Amino acid sequence: MYRLLLVFALLIILFFLVRRIIQGFQTTNLSNRDGSVDQDQMVEDPECHTFVPRRTAVVEEVKGHSYCFCSRECAKAFQDRQAR
């Protein structure tokens, strides 16, 4: 009798673990389908060519285009160079 209860309890635990794993894969696969931007994606600074995560980058609009920079100094230098 105890073996049957133990097997039943283990099957329930296994069911919930598998369900959680499947839900995790579905969430990961659907996360960027709505057109959202991955904030952990590495972007290159056009001024000093350093790679920074998008969430920490300084985003500036220069001549109608959005650029990501590693710092305000690089953004200013890039804008000054583009103004010439």
Question: Can you tell me about this structure?
Answer:
This protein has about 80 residues and is α+β, with helices and mostly antiparallel strands. It has two domains: about 1-35; about 35-84, no CATH class. Helix content is about 50%, strand content about 20%. It contains two helices and four strands. It has helices at about 1-30, 70-84, and strands at about 40-45, 50-55, 60, 65-70. A two-stranded antiparallel ribbon has the order 1-2. Strand 1 (about 40-45) and strand 2 form a beta hairpin. The longest helix is centred in the first third of the chain and has 29 residues, at about 1-30. The radius of gyration is 24 Å and the shape is rod-shaped.
Layout: helices, strands, pairs:
Layout (H helix, E strand, L loop, with lengths): L1 H29 L11 E3 L6 E3 L4 E5 L2 E5 L2 H12 L1
Antiparallel strand pairs: 1-2, 3-4
The parts where pLDDT drops under 50 for at least 5 residues are none
| Broad structural category | alpha+beta
Q: Proportion of β residues?
A: 15-25%
Cα separation of the termini: 85 Å
Strand line-up across the major sheet? 1-2
Percent helix among the residues?
40-55%
Biggest sheet, open or closed, and with what strands and sense?
2 strands, antiparallel
Order of helices and strands: HEEEEH
From the spread of the alpha carbons, the general shape counts as rod-shaped
Backbone CA Rg: 24 Å
Total individual domains: 2
* Count of individual beta strands: 4
Tally of DSSP helical segments? 2
Q: What is the arithmetic mean of pLDDT?
A: 85
